[in-house]
Amino acid sequence: MQKLIFFLTLFAVSQTQGQITTTAVKKPQTDMVNPKPAKYDSLRNYVGNNVYQYIGQEFYLRPKAEMLRQYGYEDFYISTDDEHKLNGENIYKCCESFNSIYDELAGKYFEVLEVIKHPKADEDNLLYGSKYFIKLREKQSGDIFFYRYDSKSIEEVFPFTIVGYFTKAKKRYIGKKYLTKGKNWIGEGPMTDIETGKVVSIAQGKVWKCIDVTIEDKYFEVSLVLQSATGEKVAIGINSLKSDHFASEKF
Question: What domains sit in the chain, N to C, each tagged with a CATH number?
Answer without folding.
Answer: 51-167 (no CATH), 174-249 (2.30.30)
